[in-house]
Every structure is written in C-alpha cells, then in structure tokens.
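I hope you will forgive my troubling you with a question about protein structure. Here, with my thanks, is the record as I have it:
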Amino acid sequence: IGYYFKSTRSHHLMIIESLEYSFKPEDGRRVIIKGRSIESILDRRVLFLKLYLRNKDTAEEGDMGADNAEDAIRQVIDYTFMHPDDEDRKVSNLIFEYSGAPVNEVLLDDCEFEKGTNVLDVVESIAKQQNLGFQMTLNSSNQFVFKVILGKDHTYDQSDNPFVIFSPYFNNLKS
C-alpha cells in the first residue's frame, strides 16, 4: 500500500491503496489491487491561502496572473508541490511539461478558490471550465511528468469526430 503500480500495457501509473486476498478452489489464490491513478496525489494538498487566478491582462495586486489556463494550472502545481514555501513539502521529482499549441491558446476565465480547497479540485475546476484534461506519467528518469491535455469531443452534439455513447444497452460501460 502506497507503492505505485505500472502495467506494460499502459502509460498510466496507479497508487496502490488497498489489497484484498482471496482463495477459491476453482480459481486458486487471487490478489485484488485497488487504488487510484497517480493524478490523485493532487488530492493530498490543500491551498493554505485564498487563491485568485486571473487572466494576466486583468490581474490585480495579490492575484496570480496567467497567460492561459495551462499556465494557471502550472502555477498551482508549482506553488503546492514543486516549490512550496515549506521545503519539506517539496516533491523534487515532479516536473511540468508544457503542451504547446493549441492547449496554451486556451484563455483563463477568472476564478478564485478559498483557503483549504483541495488542489485536485482546483485543477479539475480549471480544466473542466476550459474543456481540458490532465495526466501524470512516469518518465525514464523516474520523474512524475504533469501535463495538461486537450481532448477530442466525442459527444453526440458534434460532427467532427465519431460520437461515443456509453450505455448498458450497448454493453460498453466496462470497456
């Protein structure tokens, strides 16, 4: 528990949160590993000051100004994980990888977060507001690489990409 789990079939990294052992005569011994993706480490930090994120052009004194939504997320990760005020809380093997265009062209809507807000909630809020996603992977130097990503719209209301519908009727919820 607390270790990371990586499969050769995926670039995703998981944190082991619980283990269950079972034995069935027909199946033999089994170990069920449960956990969440590595992005859930953002859930382990909270803001210790009220945070105002503004577009750089409208930022006032005391605000964090950002050129775009990706830069705002980078500032939050930097402030809470990579370069926190308390050096003991620094995660030295976490790096931020810039995505480039078109992700860095997504402008930031002004937002504010109260002291004590969970960092995962902050990042998810900014990403959701701008239709962005994020992922954390492990590189060959054993560094956690945080990256903001721009997904593709596969909803029914668009015509650029094939649409996807998840439904028990199609038996595709699990896959």
Q: What stands out?
A: The mean pLDDT is 86. The chain has two helices and nine strands. The CA atoms of residues 22 and 86 lie 43 Å apart.
